[in-house]
Amino acid sequence: MFVSFFPRPKLFFLSAAIWIALTMAVWYGYASHFFQEAERPVGLRTFVAPPALWFDSYFATCVLIFAAAWRLYSPHPWARWSILGTALILFTSYFQVQVSVAINSWYGPFYDLVQAALSKSRPVTLGEFYGEMLTFARIALVAVVVGVLARFFISHYIFRWRTAMNDFYISHWPRLRTIEGASQRVQEDTMRFATTMEDLGADLISSMMTLLAFMPVLVRLSADITELPLIGHIPLPLVWAAVVWSLLGTGALALIGIRLPGIEFGNQRVEAAYRKELVLGEDDPNRAQPPTLAVLFAAIRKNYFRLYLNFLYFNVGRIVYLQTDVVFPYLLLAPTIVAGKITLGAMNQILNAFERVRSSFQYLVSSWSTIVVLISIYQRLRAFEAQIEGEPLHPIEMETDPV
Known about the structure:
By secondary structure, the chain is mostly helical. Helices cover about 80% and strands about 0% of the residues.
Protein backbone atom coordinates (compact mmCIF):
# COMPACT_ATOMS: atom_id res chain seq x y z
CA MET A 1 0.00 0.00 0.00
CA PHE A 2 2.75 2.45 0.87
CA VAL A 3 5.99 1.06 -0.55
CA SER A 4 4.46 1.21 -4.02
CA PHE A 5 3.89 4.97 -3.79
CA PHE A 6 6.32 6.37 -1.23
CA PRO A 7 10.12 5.91 -1.14
CA ARG A 8 11.10 3.70 1.82
CA PRO A 9 7.83 4.42 3.68
CA LYS A 10 8.90 3.90 7.31
CA LEU A 11 11.92 6.14 7.00
CA PHE A 12 10.04 8.56 4.76
CA PHE A 13 7.17 9.17 7.17
CA LEU A 14 9.54 9.36 10.14
CA SER A 15 11.71 11.92 8.36
CA ALA A 16 8.60 13.84 7.25
CA ALA A 17 7.34 14.02 10.83
CA ILE A 18 10.74 15.20 12.09
CA TRP A 19 11.05 17.75 9.26
CA ILE A 20 7.55 19.11 9.89
CA ALA A 21 8.25 19.40 13.62
CA LEU A 22 11.56 21.15 12.95
CA THR A 23 10.15 23.59 10.39
CA MET A 24 7.18 24.39 12.64
CA ALA A 25 9.52 25.04 15.56
CA VAL A 26 11.59 27.40 13.40
CA TRP A 27 8.44 29.11 12.13
CA TYR A 28 6.76 29.68 15.48
CA GLY A 29 10.00 30.31 17.34
CA TYR A 30 11.70 32.64 14.87
CA ALA A 31 10.45 33.12 11.30
CA SER A 32 6.85 34.14 12.05
CA HIS A 33 8.05 37.05 14.22
CA PHE A 34 9.25 39.00 11.16
CA PHE A 35 5.69 40.17 10.50
CA GLN A 36 4.22 39.60 13.93
CA GLU A 37 3.10 43.20 14.28
CA ALA A 38 1.46 43.31 10.86
CA GLU A 39 -2.29 42.87 11.29
CA ARG A 40 -4.09 41.10 8.47
CA PRO A 41 -6.89 43.13 6.92
CA VAL A 42 -10.44 41.77 6.63
CA GLY A 43 -11.30 40.60 3.11
CA LEU A 44 -9.29 39.38 0.12
CA ARG A 45 -6.27 41.50 1.05
CA THR A 46 -5.60 39.11 3.92
CA PHE A 47 -4.30 36.53 1.42
CA VAL A 48 -1.68 38.88 -0.05
CA ALA A 49 -0.70 40.62 3.18
CA PRO A 50 3.01 40.36 4.13
CA PRO A 51 2.44 37.66 6.82
CA ALA A 52 0.59 35.45 4.30
CA LEU A 53 3.15 35.85 1.52
CA TRP A 54 6.01 35.24 3.95
CA PHE A 55 4.45 31.96 5.11
CA ASP A 56 3.84 30.85 1.51
CA SER A 57 7.51 31.43 0.66
CA TYR A 58 8.67 29.65 3.80
CA PHE A 59 6.42 26.63 3.10
CA ALA A 60 7.59 26.33 -0.53
CA THR A 61 11.26 26.52 0.48
CA CYS A 62 10.89 23.79 3.13
CA VAL A 63 9.05 21.49 0.70
CA LEU A 64 11.67 21.89 -2.02
CA ILE A 65 14.50 21.14 0.41
CA PHE A 66 12.76 17.99 1.66
CA ALA A 67 11.84 16.78 -1.84
CA ALA A 68 15.36 17.37 -3.18
CA ALA A 69 16.90 15.46 -0.28
CA TRP A 70 14.72 12.41 -0.89
CA ARG A 71 15.24 12.59 -4.65
CA LEU A 72 18.99 12.32 -4.06
CA TYR A 73 18.79 9.74 -1.25
CA SER A 74 16.15 7.34 -2.62
CA PRO A 75 14.76 8.01 -6.12
CA HIS A 76 11.23 6.66 -6.64
CA PRO A 77 9.12 6.60 -9.82
CA TRP A 78 6.13 8.10 -7.99
CA ALA A 79 8.10 10.67 -5.97
CA ARG A 80 6.66 13.69 -7.75
CA TRP A 81 3.14 12.65 -6.79
CA SER A 82 3.88 11.21 -3.36
CA ILE A 83 6.10 14.08 -2.14
CA LEU A 84 5.25 17.19 -4.12
CA GLY A 85 1.62 16.12 -4.53
CA THR A 86 1.26 15.58 -0.78
CA ALA A 87 2.84 18.96 -0.13
CA LEU A 88 0.40 20.64 -2.50
CA ILE A 89 -2.53 18.96 -0.73
CA LEU A 90 -1.19 20.19 2.60
CA PHE A 91 -0.88 23.72 1.27
CA THR A 92 -4.35 23.82 -0.29
CA SER A 93 -5.80 22.49 2.96
CA TYR A 94 -3.96 25.20 4.85
CA PHE A 95 -5.19 27.84 2.41
CA GLN A 96 -8.80 26.69 2.74
CA VAL A 97 -8.46 26.95 6.51
CA GLN A 98 -7.12 30.47 6.08
CA VAL A 99 -10.27 31.24 4.11
CA SER A 100 -12.26 30.08 7.14
CA VAL A 101 -10.12 32.30 9.37
CA ALA A 102 -10.81 35.23 7.05
CA ILE A 103 -14.55 34.57 7.30
CA ASN A 104 -14.28 34.34 11.08
CA SER A 105 -12.56 37.73 11.11
CA TRP A 106 -15.41 39.08 8.98
CA TYR A 107 -17.95 37.89 11.55
CA GLY A 108 -16.82 40.51 14.06
CA PRO A 109 -17.48 43.73 12.12
CA PHE A 110 -20.50 42.30 10.29
CA TYR A 111 -22.45 41.17 13.35
CA ASP A 112 -21.45 44.29 15.25
CA LEU A 113 -22.93 46.24 12.34
CA VAL A 114 -26.12 44.17 12.58
CA GLN A 115 -26.28 44.77 16.32
CA ALA A 116 -25.80 48.52 15.83
CA ALA A 117 -28.59 48.59 13.25
CA LEU A 118 -31.04 46.59 15.37
CA SER A 119 -30.30 48.47 18.58
CA LYS A 120 -30.13 51.84 16.76
CA SER A 121 -26.95 52.64 18.70
CA ARG A 122 -25.58 54.39 15.61
CA PRO A 123 -26.78 55.09 12.05
CA VAL A 124 -26.18 52.19 9.62
CA THR A 125 -26.61 52.66 5.87
CA LEU A 126 -27.50 50.12 3.22
CA GLY A 127 -24.14 50.87 1.60
CA GLU A 128 -22.31 49.68 4.72
CA PHE A 129 -24.43 46.54 4.95
CA TYR A 130 -24.06 45.61 1.30
CA GLY A 131 -20.36 46.39 1.51
CA GLU A 132 -19.93 43.78 4.23
CA MET A 133 -21.95 41.27 2.20
CA LEU A 134 -19.74 41.96 -0.83
CA THR A 135 -16.64 41.31 1.29
CA PHE A 136 -18.07 37.93 2.28
CA ALA A 137 -18.95 37.10 -1.34
CA ARG A 138 -15.36 37.73 -2.43
CA ILE A 139 -13.96 35.49 0.29
CA ALA A 140 -16.56 32.81 -0.50
CA LEU A 141 -15.63 32.92 -4.20
CA VAL A 142 -12.01 32.19 -3.31
CA ALA A 143 -13.19 29.31 -1.10
CA VAL A 144 -15.24 27.81 -3.94
CA VAL A 145 -12.48 28.06 -6.56
CA VAL A 146 -9.73 26.69 -4.33
CA GLY A 147 -11.98 23.97 -2.89
CA VAL A 148 -13.05 22.67 -6.31
CA LEU A 149 -9.49 22.68 -7.70
CA ALA A 150 -8.16 21.01 -4.56
CA ARG A 151 -10.70 18.19 -4.76
CA PHE A 152 -9.95 17.74 -8.47
CA PHE A 153 -6.23 17.38 -7.76
CA ILE A 154 -6.79 15.05 -4.80
CA SER A 155 -8.88 12.73 -7.00
CA HIS A 156 -6.00 12.47 -9.48
CA TYR A 157 -3.51 12.02 -6.64
CA ILE A 158 -5.48 9.14 -5.15
CA PHE A 159 -5.89 7.42 -8.52
CA ARG A 160 -2.12 7.59 -9.02
CA TRP A 161 -1.76 5.91 -5.64
CA ARG A 162 -4.20 3.20 -6.70
CA THR A 163 -2.25 2.76 -9.94
CA ALA A 164 0.97 2.32 -7.98
CA MET A 165 -0.65 -0.30 -5.73
CA ASN A 166 -2.17 -2.13 -8.70
CA ASP A 167 1.15 -2.29 -10.56
CA PHE A 168 2.96 -3.45 -7.43
CA TYR A 169 0.51 -6.27 -6.64
CA ILE A 170 0.26 -7.41 -10.26
CA SER A 171 4.05 -7.71 -10.40
CA HIS A 172 3.79 -10.23 -7.51
CA TRP A 173 0.63 -11.95 -8.74
CA PRO A 174 2.11 -15.51 -8.94
CA ARG A 175 2.65 -15.40 -5.17
CA LEU A 176 -0.57 -13.58 -4.34
CA ARG A 177 -3.08 -15.60 -6.35
CA THR A 178 -3.38 -18.24 -3.59
CA ILE A 179 -4.67 -15.70 -1.03
CA GLU A 180 -8.43 -15.93 -0.42
CA GLY A 181 -10.25 -13.43 -2.63
CA ALA A 182 -7.02 -12.36 -4.35
CA SER A 183 -8.71 -10.92 -7.42
CA GLN A 184 -11.15 -8.94 -5.31
CA ARG A 185 -8.34 -7.54 -3.19
CA VAL A 186 -6.38 -6.35 -6.22
CA GLN A 187 -9.32 -4.88 -8.11
CA GLU A 188 -11.85 -3.82 -5.49
CA ASP A 189 -9.88 -3.36 -2.26
CA THR A 190 -7.23 -1.15 -3.87
CA MET A 191 -10.03 0.99 -5.33
CA ARG A 192 -11.84 1.18 -1.98
CA PHE A 193 -8.60 1.91 -0.15
CA ALA A 194 -7.85 4.76 -2.54
CA THR A 195 -11.33 6.31 -2.40
CA THR A 196 -11.57 5.93 1.38
CA MET A 197 -8.14 7.49 1.82
CA GLU A 198 -9.30 10.36 -0.38
CA ASP A 199 -12.14 11.16 1.99
CA LEU A 200 -10.43 10.40 5.28
CA GLY A 201 -7.05 11.84 4.31
CA ALA A 202 -8.47 15.13 3.07
CA ASP A 203 -10.63 15.46 6.19
CA LEU A 204 -7.72 14.59 8.50
CA ILE A 205 -5.41 17.15 6.89
CA SER A 206 -8.18 19.74 7.02
CA SER A 207 -8.77 19.00 10.70
CA MET A 208 -5.07 19.35 11.54
CA MET A 209 -4.74 22.60 9.60
CA THR A 210 -7.94 23.95 11.16
CA LEU A 211 -6.62 23.16 14.61
CA LEU A 212 -3.32 24.93 13.92
CA ALA A 213 -5.07 27.98 12.48
CA PHE A 214 -7.96 28.39 14.91
CA MET A 215 -6.29 27.44 18.18
CA PRO A 216 -4.45 30.81 18.38
CA VAL A 217 -7.74 32.54 17.47
CA LEU A 218 -9.53 30.71 20.29
CA VAL A 219 -6.72 31.57 22.70
CA ARG A 220 -7.10 35.25 21.81
CA LEU A 221 -10.88 35.16 22.10
CA SER A 222 -10.68 33.39 25.47
CA ALA A 223 -9.60 36.73 26.94
CA ASP A 224 -13.25 37.86 26.71
CA ILE A 225 -14.51 34.90 28.77
CA THR A 226 -14.06 35.38 32.51
CA GLU A 227 -15.61 32.17 33.86
CA LEU A 228 -17.21 28.84 32.98
CA PRO A 229 -20.37 27.36 34.53
CA LEU A 230 -19.68 25.15 37.58
CA ILE A 231 -15.93 25.63 37.18
CA GLY A 232 -15.41 29.34 37.53
CA HIS A 233 -12.34 31.20 36.37
CA ILE A 234 -9.52 29.22 34.71
CA PRO A 235 -6.87 30.31 32.19
CA LEU A 236 -7.80 29.78 28.54
CA PRO A 237 -11.26 28.42 29.42
CA LEU A 238 -12.50 27.89 25.85
CA VAL A 239 -9.38 25.99 24.84
CA TRP A 240 -9.59 23.62 27.81
CA ALA A 241 -13.31 23.14 27.31
CA ALA A 242 -12.89 22.26 23.62
CA VAL A 243 -10.04 19.82 24.28
CA VAL A 244 -11.63 18.02 27.24
CA TRP A 245 -15.10 17.78 25.68
CA SER A 246 -13.76 16.48 22.37
CA LEU A 247 -11.41 13.92 23.93
CA LEU A 248 -14.17 12.60 26.17
CA GLY A 249 -16.49 12.13 23.21
CA THR A 250 -13.82 10.57 21.02
CA GLY A 251 -12.68 8.17 23.74
CA ALA A 252 -16.21 7.07 24.62
CA LEU A 253 -17.24 6.43 21.02
CA ALA A 254 -14.01 4.64 20.17
CA LEU A 255 -14.62 2.33 23.13
CA ILE A 256 -18.21 1.67 22.06
CA GLY A 257 -17.15 0.91 18.48
CA ILE A 258 -14.03 -1.10 19.27
CA ARG A 259 -15.42 -4.35 17.77
CA LEU A 260 -16.55 -2.82 14.48
CA PRO A 261 -13.26 -3.17 12.49
CA GLY A 262 -13.10 -6.92 13.10
CA ILE A 263 -16.74 -7.40 12.15
CA GLU A 264 -16.32 -5.33 8.99
CA PHE A 265 -13.29 -7.45 8.06
CA GLY A 266 -15.46 -10.53 8.56
CA ASN A 267 -17.99 -9.04 6.15
CA GLN A 268 -15.34 -8.77 3.47
CA ARG A 269 -14.41 -12.44 3.93
CA VAL A 270 -17.92 -13.89 3.81
CA GLU A 271 -18.88 -11.67 0.87
CA ALA A 272 -15.73 -12.78 -0.99
CA ALA A 273 -16.48 -16.46 -0.32
CA TYR A 274 -20.04 -16.08 -1.62
CA ARG A 275 -18.88 -14.16 -4.70
CA LYS A 276 -16.15 -16.70 -5.45
CA GLU A 277 -18.59 -19.61 -5.37
CA LEU A 278 -20.95 -17.79 -7.74
CA VAL A 279 -18.07 -17.05 -10.15
CA LEU A 280 -16.96 -20.69 -10.11
CA GLY A 281 -20.54 -21.73 -10.78
CA GLU A 282 -20.54 -19.76 -14.02
CA ASP A 283 -18.12 -22.29 -15.57
CA ASP A 284 -18.63 -25.41 -13.45
CA PRO A 285 -22.20 -26.78 -13.11
CA ASN A 286 -21.14 -28.73 -10.03
CA ARG A 287 -20.34 -25.50 -8.14
CA ALA A 288 -22.70 -22.88 -6.72
CA GLN A 289 -25.32 -25.44 -5.77
CA PRO A 290 -28.28 -24.12 -3.72
CA PRO A 291 -27.30 -25.89 -0.45
CA THR A 292 -23.76 -24.47 -0.64
CA LEU A 293 -24.98 -20.99 -1.50
CA ALA A 294 -27.50 -21.15 1.33
CA VAL A 295 -24.72 -21.88 3.84
CA LEU A 296 -22.52 -19.12 2.48
CA PHE A 297 -25.35 -16.58 2.49
CA ALA A 298 -26.28 -17.58 6.04
CA ALA A 299 -22.76 -16.58 7.07
CA ILE A 300 -23.29 -13.19 5.37
CA ARG A 301 -26.60 -12.71 7.18
CA LYS A 302 -25.11 -13.67 10.54
CA ASN A 303 -22.20 -11.25 10.18
CA TYR A 304 -24.35 -8.35 8.96
CA PHE A 305 -26.81 -8.76 11.83
CA ARG A 306 -23.87 -8.69 14.23
CA LEU A 307 -22.63 -5.51 12.52
CA TYR A 308 -26.05 -3.86 12.71
CA LEU A 309 -26.29 -4.61 16.44
CA ASN A 310 -22.89 -3.10 17.16
CA PHE A 311 -23.68 -0.04 15.06
CA LEU A 312 -26.89 0.36 17.08
CA TYR A 313 -24.84 0.84 20.27
CA PHE A 314 -22.40 3.08 18.47
CA ASN A 315 -25.04 5.30 16.86
CA VAL A 316 -26.88 5.79 20.15
CA GLY A 317 -23.71 7.14 21.72
CA ARG A 318 -22.73 9.18 18.65
CA ILE A 319 -26.12 10.84 18.16
CA VAL A 320 -26.53 11.67 21.87
CA TYR A 321 -23.05 13.20 21.92
CA LEU A 322 -23.50 15.23 18.72
CA GLN A 323 -26.90 16.57 19.79
CA THR A 324 -25.48 17.66 23.13
CA ASP A 325 -22.57 19.16 21.24
CA VAL A 326 -24.92 21.63 19.51
CA VAL A 327 -25.78 23.48 22.74
CA PHE A 328 -22.49 22.91 24.56
CA PRO A 329 -20.77 26.19 23.52
CA TYR A 330 -23.86 28.21 24.51
CA LEU A 331 -23.76 26.60 27.96
CA LEU A 332 -20.11 27.65 28.28
CA LEU A 333 -20.89 31.23 27.27
CA ALA A 334 -24.07 31.53 29.36
CA PRO A 335 -22.55 33.59 32.24
CA THR A 336 -20.75 35.90 29.81
CA ILE A 337 -23.81 36.39 27.58
CA VAL A 338 -26.15 37.04 30.50
CA ALA A 339 -23.71 39.55 31.98
CA GLY A 340 -23.56 41.34 28.61
CA LYS A 341 -19.76 41.26 28.50
CA ILE A 342 -19.46 40.54 24.76
CA THR A 343 -21.05 41.92 21.61
CA LEU A 344 -22.98 39.92 19.04
CA GLY A 345 -20.00 40.02 16.66
CA ALA A 346 -17.58 38.76 19.33
CA MET A 347 -20.01 36.00 20.33
CA ASN A 348 -20.27 34.73 16.75
CA GLN A 349 -16.49 34.83 16.35
CA ILE A 350 -16.12 32.80 19.56
CA LEU A 351 -18.81 30.28 18.57
CA ASN A 352 -17.29 29.77 15.12
CA ALA A 353 -13.71 29.43 16.37
CA PHE A 354 -14.82 27.11 19.18
CA GLU A 355 -16.76 24.94 16.72
CA ARG A 356 -13.76 24.74 14.39
CA VAL A 357 -11.36 23.70 17.14
CA ARG A 358 -13.87 21.29 18.64
CA SER A 359 -14.67 19.65 15.29
CA SER A 360 -10.94 19.20 14.62
CA PHE A 361 -10.57 17.25 17.85
CA GLN A 362 -13.72 15.29 16.97
CA TYR A 363 -12.30 13.93 13.72
CA LEU A 364 -12.55 10.34 14.99
CA VAL A 365 -16.13 10.88 16.15
CA SER A 366 -17.36 12.01 12.76
CA SER A 367 -15.22 9.59 10.74
CA TRP A 368 -15.29 6.42 12.84
CA SER A 369 -17.65 4.49 10.54
CA THR A 370 -15.39 5.18 7.56
CA ILE A 371 -12.28 4.39 9.59
CA VAL A 372 -13.79 0.99 10.42
CA VAL A 373 -14.09 0.24 6.70
CA LEU A 374 -10.54 1.47 6.03
CA ILE A 375 -9.10 -0.74 8.79
CA SER A 376 -10.77 -3.81 7.33
CA ILE A 377 -9.44 -2.97 3.84
CA TYR A 378 -5.98 -2.37 5.26
CA GLN A 379 -6.00 -5.77 6.95
CA ARG A 380 -6.92 -7.49 3.69
CA LEU A 381 -4.24 -5.73 1.67
CA ARG A 382 -1.69 -6.25 4.43
CA ALA A 383 -2.09 -10.01 3.87
CA PHE A 384 -0.78 -9.46 0.34
CA GLU A 385 2.32 -7.79 1.65
CA ALA A 386 2.84 -10.49 4.27
CA GLN A 387 2.73 -13.08 1.48
CA ILE A 388 5.23 -11.10 -0.60
CA GLU A 389 7.60 -10.70 2.34
CA GLY A 390 7.22 -14.32 3.48
CA GLU A 391 5.65 -13.34 6.81
CA PRO A 392 2.90 -15.33 8.57
CA LEU A 393 -0.65 -14.20 7.88
CA HIS A 394 -2.60 -12.29 10.50
CA PRO A 395 -4.56 -14.66 12.82
CA ILE A 396 -7.85 -13.21 11.56
CA GLU A 397 -7.06 -14.61 8.10
CA MET A 398 -7.07 -18.12 9.57
CA GLU A 399 -10.40 -17.81 11.37
CA THR A 400 -13.26 -19.89 9.97
CA ASP A 401 -15.95 -17.78 11.62
CA PRO A 402 -14.68 -14.18 11.67
CA VAL A 403 -15.82 -11.98 14.51
